[in-house]
Amino acid sequence: MYVVAGSTGRVGSATARRLLADGAEVRVLVRHQSAAAGWERLGAEVCTVALEERAELGAALQGCSGFFVLLPFDLNADDLSAHADRLIASVAGAVTDQQVPHVVMLSSGGADLAEGTGPITGLHRMEQAMLATGTTLMALRSGHFQEKVADVVDVARVSGVYPVFAASADVPLPMVATHDIGEAAALALQFPPASSEAVDLVGPAHTEREVAALLGDVLGRELRVATVPEEAWPGALLEAGFRPHVAESLAELYRADEKGLLAPRGDRVVHTRTAVDATIARINAAR
Predict the structure, then answer these.
(1) Number of Cβ atoms within 10 Å of the Cβ of 38
(2) What's this model's pTM, rounded to 2 decimal places?
(3) Which of 36, 43, 3 has its CA nearest to residue 185?
(4) Integer angstrom CA distances of residue 284 from 135, 151, 214, 277
(5) Dihedral sign (CA 55, 57, 61, 62)
(6) What are phi and psi of 88, to 5 degrees?
(7) Digit-coded pLDDT (tens) for 21-62
């Protein structure tokens, strides 16, 4: 039995679906009972539980041979670090209580660093906490999600502008499809490593200008790429509706990316294949 957290999100759902397709027994964790019926129809066992509830989470992990987990980034939290630490303590405690033999964790490039990477610092602490439980940890460190383009589709469609929070839109960046991350997580659960490791998932590289052109083709209009300079990031994020402490955390993440701090530095690299144009077409079709 494999337990999958985040089953209503992109990566968690892809992980669970691949496991089910492979004939594995799967228990998905959902926060709300309303999400249960769909998974039950697919053949999954469903457990309604919140990650911050250690005892209930432990009960959901009982007897499992592997656990996929992530660290949700809650934009509504008043203190991002404190919120992350509560989740980390609960998850690590539950994994310890149940002596879960193998954990696959969605992490990120830059999670080897303790500071200077915005919300990724929480993933650093979570990797360390998981390693301390005694489980065999596979930390899947992803770079840019291809699906981040979904955040700007509406703006681009209406305004014809494709915003880029970087000094240049012409730097090739590896971009990973969340479907590929789910596939990697499902395989890792079924074929665990002999010892803990950090695996960098590296997708096809594209510049933001190339992505803007591909999105423009799908939307049927030419998009103007607008780079946002560093000094304007906090203000632009506030204008977009983010709370001040969240805007500052995201700005720190963008600065880390500009400095190359999110580059692969794990134990090994796995290259993924989904092309970004396929992801953009899928995002647009779903709207």
Answers:
(1) 15
(2) 0.94
(3) 3
(4) 40, 12, 11, 11
(5) positive
(6) -60, -45
(7) 999 999 999 999 888 999 999 999 999 999 999 999 999 999
